[in-house]
């Protein structure tokens, strides 16, 4: 659809295509120039003080829209003769400069999008390392990443998703480091999406991951620029979504969800100890409560004799079987956690602490549960909170419930059967076509030096084979081992 040949027809066409646009403003400048914009989307100071004053002072002989566009002292300008392009950019806060008799219109970026300044991370907190986190502005997030990786090989491609929302998405990767097939796979999945709108990266990742029916996330969602930068240097691909302060990182393995960028800021032996605690916390969170239920229901012989007396005394007033007792406490813990997350910050912290103490003590005195089970459930809950990625922590807590039910029905056999089903599911998962359980399956012993364990940096010269990167070396390990004094 071409541009109309008069301002009145132009305005009527816009109002007919954009329904109920009472905030559409048309300003008349000199020499027949007209400014058209939405007053709620533009920076009024930029329009009045720079754009309008520039148009009033510009005299071109002979007149041309190309020359006028070059004289405008604002960075982003464009020429178009299509009405569809005008509408799209108008709704993003651009201003249209139109003159009667011209076949082209000038589009000037005068947008003023609501945004906040970068601040500390709220969910993925850390003690050592950068504190800055992503914001809801795509331009700000892209600038943060480029300030960390200031290299010409950092590529970014722009996409538009959603026929109604027209959400802007940036695809980031390092040329000659990221595998071309991985980039093409993600590029194809984004471009083939047919949906009305995408609000946030958490919705987008559900549309592009390999198995959307799995309870386990296959791509990392993070608000930390340092995690994104480390991932890009490893050959992974990153998606930034406008309006979301979370970036999508892929492909990702199951063990990547238990690694923190803070592990690289600590000394290697301390980082390896902390990472080992996280892996231990997985088994505690998943197996501790089901083991309690199975032991008290079917396997009394595995309980030490010295523990039988206090255990029987603790359960003497409990009328429920261990299965219902443990499910009651687990659901109570989840209710407290969900209530604390939904309430305001100060009230939520008080609710979590006071509510847990009051409800736990009242449950013991009323005979609903035993003291020992409260300690076990609390330890399992604490272990699930050690996971650096929030979505993986939720998945681990979810897995605990079917395992408790299986332990209460079949005992130890039920636990083993549930673990086998869980492992079969994990081994079949992929992330952008890459094995989810790498480097455990298929076994890659060389890649375990920075996955399961954490070795000193001089021993981490090779990149992981998981990303299939064409550039396999981070640095020359022979030169890294050389130590020279100043006088040499």
TrEMBL record:
Membrane-spanning parts: 279-300, 372-391, 403-427
Top-rank taxon, per record: Bacteria
Residue runs in coiled coils: none
Annotated keywords: Membrane, Transmembrane, Transmembrane helix
Family: Belongs to the GerABKA family.
Protein's name in the database: Spore germination protein
